[in-house]
Amino acid sequence: MLDVVRLRVLLAVARKGSLTAAAKELHYAQPSVSHHLARLEAETGAKLIQRAGRGIRLTEAGRLLAERAADIVSRLDAAEDDLAAHVGLRSGRVRLAAFPSALGTFVPVAAGLLGREHPGLRLHLTETEPPEALKLLRAGRVDVAVIFRYDDTAPEDNGIQMVHLLDDPSYLVSPGPDRTLEEHAGSTWIAGCDRCRSHLLDLCDKAGFAPDITFTSDDIVAVQALVAAGMGVTVLPGLALRAHRHPEVSATPIPGSTRHVYAAVYGEPPHPPATEALLAALRSALRSAPRSALRSALRETL
Q1: What is the pLDDT of residues 160-178, one digit of tens each?
Q2: Low-confidence residues of the chain, pLDDT below 50?
Q3: Whole-prediction pTM value?
């Protein structure tokens, strides 16, 4: 196999036309240049240079190898530059899947932070619920999945690392004055995604009744519109109410009902630099939330 360092020496000799000038360009001693050329001739079995007066010139074999070497070295240099740009986050992409209320609240803040910190890094966003987001993560189609789970949700795969982001309280959403779950035992109910529906069933079971679920929708705008129209009651997390709050519904905190929001990544750290940068941006967005829009807005609207 040809040695790349020796190919670089051959290219320098081809450009400069002498061993002395090539050594100066490469910051080598002249004997080192002569040694590399001799080794390269031994490796190729061809005479690559010949004397021409006080200088040297390439033989036909030397010119052929130098032409090929120029392309090889150029591609290697480009690859090194691309990798350095990726590692240094001057370019590249990172892919995030997240559920709708995260995309409607803290994820845009994180995206803005990431863009300002690493303007050459492209962020790709996918909206999907946790089970589908985790499938994308396992398949290598996203780098980070922002998901939520409840205390009774089945644990995730061992290969998935969960980075805790926040705890999101649940609220009873109804058209009238604040009431308890038990007081709505005879009401019609509106359920959300499968994971939220399971949690609703668990809450109502602990309250001593089975909910009469007549509507199901993942759309928090539609769900609250149905509640406002008197078509039922529901349970929504705080992030959903932060992302959209219908002015004609009432929201009452449900004691002991909290969903846990995580950034899920595959495999053990250290993670690729772009993934780590995205995780840092998500954490930073939530650290700044109490002083900006997220938790203060929740307190105001609830």
Answers
A1: 999 999 999 999 999 987 7
A2: 290-301
A3: 0.70
Alpha carbons 261 and 245: distance in angstroms, whole number = 20
Beta bridge partners of 98: 127, 146
237, amino acid identity = P
Tokens encoding 169: 């309280």
Q: Do the Cβ atoms of 240 and 251 come closer than 8 Å? A: no
Cβ proximity of 75 and 114 under 8 Å: no
Q: List pLDDT tens digits, range 272-283.
A: 889 999 999 999
Strands (E), the chain: 49-52, 55-58, 93-98, 122-127, 144-149, 160-174, 188-191, 212-216, 234-237, 250-266
DSSP assignments along 228-242, one per residue: HTTS-BEEEEHHHHH
Distance from C-alpha of 88 to C-alpha of 46, rounded to nearest angstrom: 41
**Residue 96 one-letter amino acid:** L
Q: Kindly report the number of other CB atoms within 10 A of residue 296's CB atom.
A: 12
Task: State how far the Cα of 105 lies from the Cα of 100, in Å rounded to an integer.
Answer: 9
Closest by alpha carbon to 220, among 201, 195, 245, 196? 245
Q: 14-17 long-range contacts, Cβ below 8 Å, gap at least 24?
A: 14/58, 14/62, 14/63, 14/66, 17/55, 17/56, 17/57
Distance CA 269, CA 161 (A): 9
Residue pair 62/49 in contact by the 8 Å Cβ criterion:
yes
For residues 93 and 123, is the Cβ–Cβ distance under 8 A? Answer: yes
- How far apart (Å, rounded) are the C-alpha atoms in residues 285 and 294? 9
